[in-house]
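In this section we walk through a basic example: taking a raw amino acid sequence and producing a predicted 3D structure, encoded as discrete structure tokens. The instruction is simple. Fold the sequence below.
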Amino acid sequence: GIRSVPRRMRVRISRKRNDEEDAKDELYSIVTVAEVPPEGLTGLGTKIIEEED
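The resulting token sequence is shown next.
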């Protein structure tokens, strides 16, 4: 077996507006895996990013 498998994953959740006419929900979420900095995960927090497509 593999020893010391990491049990935590850092993800980024982006909320997008659904522009389809017959859409059931107004917003949807896109989840992507975030890069882990070389110094580790300690001291990181939440950061709100406004993106325009």
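Looking at the output, two observations stand out. The two ends are 44 Å apart (CA to CA). Residues 9-34 form one domain. In the next section we compare this with other chains.
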